[in-house]
């Protein structure tokens, strides 16, 4: 650790001395810094190779990879600002990125100076909390008669109360994350999420009350546990669907509320123009939505490299959150705002590409098909041009999805590669729809809607040819309609979105940077889940077979057999592979070869 701290101190020293040597003609300090950073990364790489992997070290590795990736992003931006140097404007950009580099170095220095390991954010992710909760409930609800350990498990009163208390902690954290998502969810999803959260709380209370009953029968506990399980599954299923709908809206709003449009609006508006304020507010909401989407994507990313790419994008959004808009408001034509805008656009592109690689292709197409069907139905009732144009933009996200190499293989694996043909047909009809919308004022609405229906037909064929998910059969989603019917009575009684959930804190902590806005949004409580109670019981590792989670509908997940086969490889090598990738970048940079 001492060696790593010394190398970090060397990097910080070079960075501090760089303030006096920021001339365009003198980039030697940047080369020296990259060389010093390369030495640190090499030492970290060796340290990871020598150290045994565990949960705590894995969390530290994730933080190291995030900080190094952020430093790489900022170094390239620093080099660009130095090449564009033209007075104080660029100096502001230069200092901004240097401050971010310094922050990352200090986070690393604190990590290697403190005995405490980095917080394992994944251990508190929605996925981990849900799995832990379902594992605990399985002790009471499983029908696996072949597992004698499970059937003979002695539920003593103290053990039951301990498990019940652990469930409360985990579910409170899980609902906190759900409410954090609900805060930025689409309007039509907010009330359903509120009702589902309330249902989970009611079933949890009923289960805990039963746990307190002296000599409660196993059948009663089993019934309450199964009811709570079902409520959790319903919540998860709805979040999956709502999350996908939010992805399409988020991608679309990146275009609707772009930085360039904000710049133009600020130039043409007065200081007290409410329109500009509303536009900026919509921009902020979309960043919050992207952050929530990214948090879920990190939990389901297949490897550390993908997790780090997504975390890096969110960290950049977090930092730009308090810098980008103020730079536009101060002077929209300032070169500093231009640099920050370019940086933001690059991070958005990386965010979208990374998310497209994580999202399951069939689920993505299914959601687009649902959106397209709803849009066509609305247009038949009341024709409007703008919503149809939005539908076309969302359909373009399907093309972006299949520009990702790993997603193209999905089409290649279809029978007789029919998926490739359907995609080409989809592209052709999409062009026709865009063409007819350009002259929409001269065409009857029925003809326009007919082209959209053809687009929907091709999309349905494309969706159908992709291998049906083993977790959901082909055909209409009866579950969601049944769920909405079940919730209708509760929704009519809901006065506000979250009337009985005030005791649960929404969870939205900092990704990396400590910004003023994030501090205001920080949780007022930090209740961490204790070690699961049943893990300390002799027969804790049960082979419980329960209904497979539908989380795979949105995100790619490896099957159990494959996960077991490569678990050790991922645990021992994923961090090293990410560090190696960074080392390759640093090697080129330390030789003075820079490309913006």
From TrEMBL:
An annotated GO BP: cell-cell adhesion
Highest taxon of source: Eukaryota
Localization of this protein: Cytoplasm
Gene Ontology molecular function terms on file: actin filament binding; beta-catenin binding
Acyltransferase recorded as keyword: no
Keywords, sorted A to Z: Cytoplasm
Main location: cytoplasm
Listed PANTHER family: ALPHA CATENIN, RE47911P-RELATED
Protein name as catalogued: Serendipity locus protein alpha
Organism name: Drosophila pseudoobscura pseudoobscura
Protein's gene: Spt
